[in-house]
Amino acid sequence: MGSDDLFKKRREARKQRQYDYKTPKANSFLIVTEGERTEPLYFKGLQKLILENMGGVVDVVVPPVIDIHGEGCSTSKLIEVAEQLVKDAKIMYQNVWIVFDKDDFEDFNQAIEEGEHQGFRIAWSNQSFEYWLYLHFNYSDSALHRRQWNAKLDDLFQKYNLGDGTYQKNYEDIYNMVDWYDGVNTAIKNAKRRMADFEKGGFQPSEFDPGTTVYQLVEELKRFIE
């Protein structure tokens, strides 16, 4: 092989490395949510506090093709969306979190396993994100349908005169609303209490109703404030 050919191959290899290289970003988060309203609005409220207090960088990405309940779309599809977002990103995120609910999907456990296999962290809720919101006010280990969690939130929003007195999925200030009287720390405490039984083993996420690991992501983010 001539020296000119070797030089060309090395030059092309350098170009490819430069093209593939992404700058690692310390303390960076990519949060991909199943829902287009409640979940991203909640995390954007927390994002705002972080930026105000530390000037950190947290990207909240809501794939527009994913419905909040995922009707007609498997939760595994969200893993594919997250993979593409990571691939297309200009930086290397230190933390990639995927947030989704069980709802009525049968591939819930599979999606969690697949996401973790890809190196993602999963903030799941069984049955819905509304259970996590409820924990900001009260503890519960009752297995209820998501519609019932919505109804319970309606009662709480009316009781405490939050928003227009009913629970809505499009409150832009949802994080501050449920943080009423230290609600976020209350939710973390309640979630840990509930998930203690899950951590003992013997359960699949789909079997643990109600349950949520959203508190793990919230704790990760809150440390930049506290």
Account of the protein in words:
By secondary structure, the chain is an alpha/beta fold. 48% of the residues lie in helices and 15% in strands. It is built from 9 helices and 5 strands. It has a 5-stranded mixed beta sheet with strand order 2-1-3-4-5. The longest helix has 18 residues, at 3-20. The protein starts with a helix and ends with a helix.
Brief characterization of the structure:
This protein is α/β, with parallel strands linked by helices. It has helices spanning 3-20, 38-53, 76-88, 108-117, 129-134, 146-159, 174-178, 183-199, 214-222, and strands at 23-33, 58-61, 91-101, 121-126, 211-212.
Q: In DSSP terms, counting alpha (H) and pi (I) runs of 4 or more, how many helices?
A: 9
Low-pLDDT segments, ≥5 res: 14-19, 62-72
Number of strands: 5
Relative helix content = 40-55%
Give the overall average pLDDT: 83
Q: Give the SSE order as H and E letters.
A: HEHEHEHEHHHHEH
**Biggest sheet: strands, sense, closure?**
5 strands, mixed
Strand order of the largest sheet: 2-1-3-4-5
> Which structural class should the secondary elements be placed in?
alpha/beta
Distance between the ends: 61 Å
Shape, per Cα inertia axes: globular
- Specify Rg, calculated over alpha carbons: 20 Å
Proportion of β residues? 15-25%
Describe the structure using short key phrases.
5 strands, 48% helix, globular, 9 helices, five-stranded mixed sheet, single chain, 226 residues, alpha/beta
Describe the secondary-structure layout.
Layout: H1 3-20, E1 23-33, H2 38-53, E2 58-61, H3 76-88, E3 91-101, H4 108-117, E4 121-126, H5 129-134, H6 146-159, H7 174-178, H8 183-199, E5 211-212, H9 214-222
